[in-house]
Amino acid sequence: MINIAIVEDNMLHIGRLETLLHELSQELRIKINIVISNNMEEYRSQLSQDQIYDLYFLDLDIEGNKNAGFDIAKEIRKYHQLGTIVFVTTLSDAWPLVFKNHVSALDFIPKDESEILFKERIKECLEHVINMRKEQVKEVLTYSYKERIVLQIPFGDILMIQTSASAHRLIVYGKTIRKEFYGTLTDILELDKKGYFQKIDRSTIVNIQNVVSVNKREREVMFYDGTTSPVSRLRIKDLKEKVEHYHQQVNYTREKNLGDFGVMF
């Protein structure tokens, strides 16, 4: 299932895009789920951190605000770095602003594009999402809660995940994001097939890929960015051994790869 969000205030353009997406889903033999917001109020109520979408089609000019699409894209990037963003707009001269706003958009499609080209570019967006899923399936943590995807983040970007003060909610601390979402640590640990996660107390798990040191005397773990977190006395030994073993494996692999390329020191 590919989850798609459309933010557009012109009903004709909504119908055109929705029709094409359903046609293409048949051609590509994929299932899609589309959520439509045709004003900013609907956007804020429907698109939130608690629902992750694979593909976002955003108009730039919404309710007379020519920067609305960029503002929405910036909000999306705060909690979903992997989502594919595509701007579909009449403001064809606004393309340079995509780079200025640093929102990593896949495409910028003019609404006045010919029907054949318009459909082809929408198809390319869907194919991009399909291919990205195939490439990332083993390296991305995708977590669903009650049949809704609430978290999608590369394993390598996660520092730690801990329980929130709010019931049934977790907080993920990443390299560039902090996000609260519904879930349980037990479910998260079950998704970790490569053993990257280690529990450091009853309410916190850390990603050993981003741990640089474990201080047994102070009973704390330090991440690559200098931040620290306390570790339970009963778990400090196992954590230190697991981190050291991981670093040994990484160093061995790096040295082996350098040797294969004939690099000598």
Automatic annotation (TrEMBL):
What protein name does the entry list?
A: Two component transcriptional regulator, LytTR family
PANTHER family, A to Z: STAGE 0 SPORULATION PROTEIN A HOMOLOG, TRANSCRIPTIONAL REGULATOR-RELATED
Superkingdom as given in the UniProt entry: Bacteria
Listed GO MF terms: DNA binding; phosphorelay response regulator activity
Question: Pfam families, per this entry?
Answer: LytTR, Response_reg
Which residue ranges does the record assign to the HTH LytTR-type domain? 141-245
Give all residue intervals belonging to the Response regulatory domain.
3-126
The cross-references to PROSITE patterns, in alphabetical order and at most eight, read:
HTH_LYTTR, RESPONSE_REGULATORY
Q: Where, per the database record, does this protein carry 4-aspartylphosphate?
A: D59
